[in-house]
Amino acid sequence: MQVTHQNNVKIYSVTSGSKSAIPDWLAKRSAKSLKNDLEYRSRIELIQDFQFPEASLKLKFTKDRKHIMATGVYKPQIRVFDLDELAMKFDRHTECENVAFEIISDDWTKSVHLQADRTIEFHSQYGMHYKTRIPKFGRDLTYYHPNCDLYVCGSSSEIYRMNLDLGRFMTPFVTSSPALNVIKLNPAHGLLGVGGEDGQLEFWHPYERRSLARLDVTKALLGQDLERFPEITALEFHDDGLTFVAGTATGHVLLYDLRKMEPLLVKDHQYGLPIKSLAFHPTGNVVSADSKVVRIWNKDDGKLFTAVEPPHDINDVCIPDDSGLVFIANEGVQMQTYYIPQLGPAPKWCPFLDNLTEELEETPGGMTLYDDYKFVTRKELSRLALDHLIGTNVLKAYMHGFFLDLRLYNKAKAIANPFEYEEFKKKRIAEKLEKDKKTRIHATRKLPKVNAGLALRLQKEGEDEEDDDSDDGRSKKKKNKKKKDVDVSAIKEDDRFKSLFEDEDYQIDENSAEWKLHHPSEVFNKTMGAKMSNFKKVEETREDSGDEAADKDDDDDDDDARDRDSDDYFNDNDLDSEEEAAIAKFKFDPRKPTTKGVTYERPEKEKKAGPAMYEYKDPKDKGEVSFADRVRAAQNEASAGLGRGVLSVSSGAAGGKSMTFRPSFRGRPTRLRAGEDPRPRPTGGDDQRKKRGVGELRLRAVGGMGPRGGRGGGRGGGRGGGGGRGGRGGGRGRGRG
């Protein structure tokens, strides 16, 4: 916090950017170097974002003293700041620069703005409510609450009146001045005062349509060495209803009493610049400002109290009632804020300023006030066993905690945990070694030590999503797999999440009730894992219907297929045990037509994709069933009849039952030949696949004998012969001889 002394009065700058007098554009370029600037790091920002992009023009407090409304550029905009939150409430852009504005409600919700393009804008909390124009360019405005009249003065001799209750312009007041610069209302009795370019003051009453009095200010400055004509540029009335001050373009401030024509006091700013702002302070001081300096002086004797010189040209000054805060709108980005404890206390919305200034007065070199202090909460004080210091001078209450001397904090922390430094040192060494290991070349990527289960689940989820893709998108699946792997590894390398797999403080406790509540499926899988140990998985053999019933209408082709199947069946049964063992050593793929019907071990991915069947382990396999029970079970099997297609049925003593069977032929029912084995024949083999013959081409035959009929030829002869009445065309066989 920067402290200046003017006339033995301490002035504290509570603006974050007040320490720099360099141009704002240069300060923005060197913003990165500000982290090494001790003065910038020790700044205090009273209100967050209390600034404009280029410059601030006007600022005022609301009547309830809870908000500040300010206007600035560029782009032209209105900003409202919430003093309870010490932050900006909102900003609203306008089409033109603001000249003056007036808040017509107790809070910020209703305001009137005079713009530089002769427009008057009425704003509400939802935005601009209405906009109108005046005949001449306006310079100032004021609002009289009792009769809802808005008064606007400008570059003409007329005072424009607009009644907001009726919503229309009233007859304007015509003054004797060629142009008017400022207009103000007396808060005590409603006297309207206007200052003109000719150095004349005129007084009107809202209920009278004529000038009540006229005052020539130039007469009091006749003996002065003036560089320009003393136009009236500022005017302000006191709450007593009798005293007022007027500022001129030559830098003079004149204090008047309404009962006298001569000024009571004349104050010169010594700069020869127009007076921008005037205000009365409850302490009996007058606050006057030009574009260079803000002077605070006593209204009785004119003695200077102090002066404030901001780094940029001044546009407006505002002081809360009975407060030591001074807000300045200027040509810089930051709106300057100064605190003068001798002028008044801090407002109730920032009482901590008093604590700061008290410490600065006791500590020489106030710039390093809080460099040796540590902010701690009440919980931290209890952990350090220092909560008994609450209420003493050792702790300074601030916000939700306290300021504690850094040396005392370090001592208390060392006593509370004497081995903290050693633990911290070991932890840093371990982190350093772990970091060096990452730079080495690893043959295989291992799971992290911390939350290995979580990393494994992330990888499995990526693989499961890839397995769900269709076969038509195999090329796309490879791309997705690569992309998914990159995403999983990126999570481990991301600065935001890598601590989840490195820091043991983030270890997930999978035995906790909260984890089990959020992951019921994983808990179920772990529980069922032990119960499923008594089951063995049975691979499901795949059957391919193939093309065995491609043409069910041709009986001769079906007979040939059955003959081939019969041969294959008896050939398979003739195999001895050695041949079967040799065949079982090979793993065949049932998707290839040359290996159908043979035991096949499915790949690991296909095991996950399809359903699985389980066969219960019979206790007799473990030798737990007596010999008598096995004999009784064998007798039951012998007495039971076997159904069609059932080869064998066995029952276990524990209630288990197993059955071996052959699936029936999928074609339509066929007639058995004499001497043919009634048992179903196995499916499979290369000869079992039906081959497409010349008959499938459906060519027109030249003629000849059908398989069983007369001279039909082609299809006609074949089907006609089946009826036994075929002639030349196949009889009823729809022959086409």
TrEMBL record:
Residues 454-485, 510-622, 646-737 are annotated as: Disordered. One of its GO terms (biological process) is maturation of SSU-rRNA from tricistronic rRNA transcript (SSU-rRNA, 5.8S rRNA, LSU-rRNA). It comes from the Eukaryota. GO terms for cellular component: 90S preribosome; small-subunit processome. The keyword tRNA processing does not apply. Residues 494-522 form the NUC153 domain. Residues 369-417 form the Nucleolar protein 10-like second domain. Residues 703-730 have a biased composition (Gly residues). Pfam families: Beta-prop_NOL10_N (PF23098), NOL10_2nd (PF23097), NUC153 (PF08159). Residues 1-363 form the Nucleolar protein 10-like N-terminal domain. Keywords: Nucleus, Repeat, WD repeat. It is found in: Nucleus, Nucleolus. InterPro entries: Beta-prop_NOL10_N (IPR056551), NOL10/Enp2 (IPR040382), NOL10_2nd (IPR056550), NUC153 (IPR012580), WD40/YVTN_repeat-like_dom_sf (IPR015943), WD40_repeat_dom_sf (IPR036322), WD40_rpt (IPR001680). Residues 462-471, 545-560, 568-581 have a biased composition (Acidic residues). Residues 599-622, 673-699 have a biased composition (Basic and acidic residues). Its main location: nucleus. Belongs to the WD repeat NOL10/ENP2 family. This is WD40 repeat-like protein. It comes from Rhizoclosmatium globosum.
